[in-house]
Automatic annotation (TrEMBL):
Protein name stated in the entry: PLP-dependent aminotransferase family protein
InterPro entries from the UniProt entry: Aminotransferase_I/II_large, HTH_trans_reg/aminotransferase, PyrdxlP-dep_Trfase, PyrdxlP-dep_Trfase_major, Tscrpt_reg_HTH_GntR, WH-like_DNA-bd_sf, WH_DNA-bd_sf
Transferase in keyword set: yes
Record carries keyword Nucleotide-binding: no
Length: 475
């Protein structure tokens, strides 16, 4: 390619098309995919391309760096920059098993992270970011938490908040402070595996309460309360993990009423509320003194922050919660908390969350189209609960998918514990014994949308055929 040639792939930069360096990198990727650029083709020098596109040199440098990150380019020293040969990925598993937020289109997360950390370091004493913070977050961290919870509750007293190193730590601390060894914890028959892990390690008994299409059944909860005198009720009422069910308001009110009659505290784990389309108010707004409310940033922003806000309105209980938390997780990392606070207060968190929400909904539409007839998602959130045809079991399907290079999570991973008598009546929720013929598909962990599409297409094809008979390989 001659330096004075106009490249046929040259993009027309759009004012509202996102960062210009990403537009250029996307154009390079599209040109490789379309065959306009082939392995070994030499790209224009960066200054020449900057002049052609009327952008500064830094923009081109960032575009080339991004293209290298995507394995599109390779540098050959003084000879210049060339289109790279495709790299063979020997372990390219398409991960539909990990529930993480999808990367928002057009948002440069690396730049967001660098800017956020730079602002933190400019405005804070570095020594304070590297020492102990034992009060459940600084005053400004709790104020940021109160702002984060405003869509759920309106005005929140920042003094009622505890900043925790993630929701899992908050769940474990809640169990320690609200129960004793051997006590019963009630939960839905299919639910978050982290609850089971914490209850088992802490020596608590987890009892599964049957559900219907709207979540836990109030009559079954009442029966379980009479029979077991539980110390705690755990609920994940909005876009529940894994079934993606959102409890309607009347169901929330009925469950709270039962818990109040039997004086059972509720832990409300609510990581997806801000991603849902017009969700009902949290349980904690219906019974403020009855409910300990957990809101993590891991599902709306990024898991790497390890920051969750816990609303505990009772001051005595709040101090006991802090003491329990310190027994195993002394504090949230001050640097992580400061970054989360910076993003919330300067508005970056809301831009990132809106990008996650839009990308998640786009991916849900993709899943609905590719899994036609089987998709039963809510259209938002991070995951789909997929009922299987009768000829597949969840474990069989997960194993077969793995052999095709796809990771999914079978229903068995979400079985809560000892089952209550009674039958679940909701589609996809199985019975009180936890026998459920479904898998969870997570839509966010595959960064590239094209690879996600390929994974969903492959999964759809797998679902359409019957399992292969078992054979043993002889070598």
């Amino acid at each position: 390619m001659q330096e004075d040639d106009t490249p046929p792939w040259l993009p027309r930069l759009a004012a509202r098309g996102g960062p210009r360096f990403l537009q250029i990198a996307d154009a390079l990727q599209a040109a490789v995919a379309d065959g306009l650029l082939k392995p070994g083709d030499r790209l224009p020098p960066q200054r020449h391309l900057a002049a052609l596109l009327d952008v500064d040199l830094t923009t081109i440098t960032r575009a080339y760096d991004e293209a290298r990150r995507r394995n599109l380019l390779e540098g050959r020293g003084a000879r210049g920059t060339y289109i790279a040969a495709p790299k063979v990925e020997l372990t390219a598993v398409l991960d539909l098993g990990m529930n993480t937020p999808p990367p928002p289109a057009g948002l440069d997360f690396d730049d967001l992270l660098k800017q956020g950390l730079a602002q933190v370091l400019m405005g804070a004493d570095a020594a304070l970011l590297m020492t102990y913070h034992l009060g459940g977050g600084s005053d400004v961290d709790r104020q940021a938490g109160a702002q984060w919870l405003q869509p759920m509750f309106g005005a929140v007293d920042a003094e009622q908040l505890v900043v925790c190193p993630g929701a899992q730590a908050a769940i474990a601390a809640s169990i320690l402070v609200l129960t004793e060894p051997g006590d019963v914890i009630l939960a839905e028959s299919i639910g978050y595996p982290g609850l089971r892990a914490a209850a088992t390690q802490l020596g608590r008994q987890l009892i599964a309460v049957p559900t219907d299409p709207h979540g836990m059944r109030p009559d079954s909860l009442e029966q379980a309360c009479r029979q077991h005198q539980p110390a705690l009720l755990y609920l994940n009422p909005t876009l529940q993990n894994p079934t993606a069910t959102t409890m309607p308001l009347d169901r929330r009110q009925a469950l709270v009423a039962v818990a109040q009659r039997y004086n059972v505290r509720i832990v409300e784990d609510d990581p997806y509320w801000l991603l849902a389309e017009a969700p009902p108010p949290p349980l904690a707004s219906l019974a403020p003194e009855q409910v300990l409310y957990i809101s993590t940033l891991s599902k709306c922003l990024t898991p790497g922050l390890r920051v969750a806000f816990v609303l505990v309105r009772d001051p005595v209980l709040r101090e006991r919660f802090l003491a329990a938390l310190r027994a195993f997780a002394l504090m949230v990392s001050p640097l992580s908390a400061a970054l989360a606070t910076q993003w919330i207060l300067d508005g970056s968190a809301y831009g990132l969350m809106e990008g996650v929400r839009k990308e998640a909904r786009l991916r849900h539409r993709m899943a609905r189209d590719l899994l036609a007839g089987r998709y039963s998602g809510a259209g938002d959130g991070l995951h789909v609960w997929l009922e299987l045809p009768g000829y597949w079991s969840p474990t069989q399907l997960a194993q077969a998918a793995h052999s095709e290079g796809i990771a999914v999570t079978p229903a068995e991973a979400f079985t809560t514990g000892t089952a209550e008598t009674g039958r679940d009546t909701g589609a996809g929720t199985g019975t009180g014994t936890g026998t459920v013929n479904a898998i969870r598909i997570s839509l966010g962990s595959i960064k590239d949308r094209g690879r996600l599409q390929a994974g969903l297409q492959r999964l759809s094809q797998l679902l359409a055929r019957r399992p292969d008979p078992f054979t043993t390989a002889v070598v």
